[in-house]
Amino acid sequence: MTLDELVVEAAGGQPGAPATTTEGEARRRLAATPGGTAVVDQRQLEARSDVSIADSLNIVPGVIANSFLGGNDQPKIHIRGSGQQTNPTERGLLILQDGLPLNRADGSYIVGLIDPRMADFFEVYRGYTANRLGATVLGGAINFVSPTGSGSPGAQVSVEGGSYGYVRTQVQGGDRKGDYDAFVQYSYDQRDGYRTWNGSDRTIFSANAGARINDNISTRVFVGYTDLGFEIAGPLSWNRMKADPTQAAPGPITVNGVPTEPGPNALRDKPLRDTQQARVGSRTTATYGEHVFDLALGYTYTDDTFRFPVGTGYRITDGGDFTTSARYAYRPDKTAALPLFETTAMYVVGSADRTWANNYRSIRTTAFGSNELEAQTLSVWSGFNVPVGAFTISPALSYMMATRDNTDTFGAARRPTINAVSGATGTVAATNTSFSRSYDAFNPSLAFLYNLAPNNVVFAAVSRTYEAPTFDDLLEATGGTPNTSPTGFATPNLKGQSSITAETGTRGTWDRFAWDVVTYYSWIEDELIRTTNISGALSTVNADKTRHFGVELGGSVRLTDALTARVTYTFQDFRFWNDPLYGDNRIAGAPRHVFLGALRYTINPQLWVEGEVQWVPDDVPVDNANTLFSEAFATVNMRAHYKYDARWSGYAEVRNLFDANYAASTLTIGRATRADQAAFLPGDGRAVYGGIKARF
């Protein structure tokens, strides 16, 4: 969404800048792309404290990002419905850092590993526009671009803190000497949390260095490490949330001998996630006249421990993933925002060991399963951008291939079980869970863009996209309850989901106005529908046919020289289509209307204040049967930013000013069998934050 002044820089960014791109280049390129795109920079995040990935994305139309567990968690993110039912998000989007995927080879990801304020800016690609990056998903892609020594010389230190035990510090520095530059940054944050058993902490280190080898070739290397941990307070029933949203999920409560408010027991089982990821990569770019070549290599190693409630138990996964990405572009017109022809290939291969163990009152006990998981995903994309007068015609074709191979390495004839109430143990017969799945698809697209005037375009596109399931879809522990461990595994033979999407839109600026409007309709086959049962266990099925319709609107207006308004509005109508179980019901978890509006008053060049409202004006279905709903809500935020001089600045913010008690997210359920189902995740109450930043 174009909300700020458009910055246009000469192609290539800073003279001789080694193997990097600038925000100006990104804005120019995405503005000329016929489809839903956006660039978010650090100016748009100013004066926001405790910034999660959800806070940074909800200003983009078409992106729904809600806190799921609180703190530095995995917020629930989806674009055009892709990934909306994952709990928390692990599929449906391609997440990249400097063009290299953070997704594992099977397509899953842990979005809490990203701190958006450590990016210089990030690009958002909605729908088919992500295919040029190597995406093999329906939703789109988000690419976080790191600062460099060329673009961000000097040093910066920031410290902030506030409610619920929140503290964060960030230190960064970079420099350039001739043909070389380097940049290093570190951040640490922790939070006690709004709820009981809701603490989190995260440490991130990243660095990059670039070299201009000669007039034609430059290269850059990246390294990074993230240590992420967060406690999971669990879902509450609606009545329990309204009575006390700060409590952790207590599990089923027995009243007159009858269990009520079924759900996991977070107080007893103490679910949490503890993840470490190390990353290393490089990108080399060579330009010879009209020809541009780009080669990127990356490796990530992830060690992920997810302690679920007893009904699922411990899931421990560790392994590595290699990425190779190659790109060629033909640019006979150096002034054009897009090349005349471009082709990209990305290949990701990885393996991981996964161990399943029983959770007895937060203690890891006997292992009941183990697997060796191997995946590979290949995507190849080629496309033209042919100018015909004021028109640009953009045909493209992509191909994707994926394999998901699971070898059961457990070996024992029986699997141990445990009762979390009595401590009683037992065994059940073990069956082999091994499988081998393969997927492939061709995805054509055709788009048109018309330049009405400088910086004003209209466009239309028809595209096909395809997405294979992840191991989290294909291998699930089953048979558990809120008080007993799993008794086996489900290995559904799922199909990949595919969609045909027609979209049209316009974006541009005129006088005091800026706008970005897209509307789309998707015909989806075999949509991957992921739901949660009473114990908290997950399962995925294919819905035969579904339909997604949406409107994505962003805009701003400078009312006076001192007063600016901005708005982001997303409309979604996602439905099953003649489904044997759910008819034409709405798909659970998707609000129809999401509105974010802000009014900023600039008191003087040093000080501005802003009020912001987030409004979900209608009830959201919690289950696909549309029998249980989360109620509409609105929250109000206030913030101020003061720039003392070129070195010092400070900011303050009040979140949820009127202390609304609301569900920020919910679990998604197939059919809620009772009104007191524990399915609601409370949003934070009123909170006050402040921070100081110094540049040197």
From TrEMBL:
SUPFAM superfamilies per the UniProt record, alphabetical: Porins
Gene3D superfamilies named in the record: TonB-dependent receptor, beta-barrel domain, TonB-dependent receptor, plug domain
Polar residues bias locations: 480-501
UniProt region (Disordered), positions on chain: 478-501
Membrane topology category: Multi-pass membrane protein
Pfam families: Plug (PF07715), TonB_dep_Rec_b-barrel (PF00593)
Molecular function GO terms recorded: siderophore uptake transmembrane transporter activity
TonB-dependent receptor-like beta-barrel domain span: 163-657
Keyword DNA repair: no
Top-level division of the source organism's lineage: Bacteria
Key words of the record: Cell outer membrane, Membrane, Receptor, Signal, TonB box, Transmembrane, Transmembrane beta strand, Transport
GO biological process, one term: siderophore transmembrane transport
GO CC field: cell outer membrane
Keyword Transferase: no
Start and end residues of each TonB-dependent receptor plug domain: 31-141
Subcellular locations according to the entry: Cell outer membrane
UniProt similarity note: Belongs to the TonB-dependent receptor family.
UniProt name for this protein: Ligand-gated channel
Organism of provenance: Rhodoplanes elegans
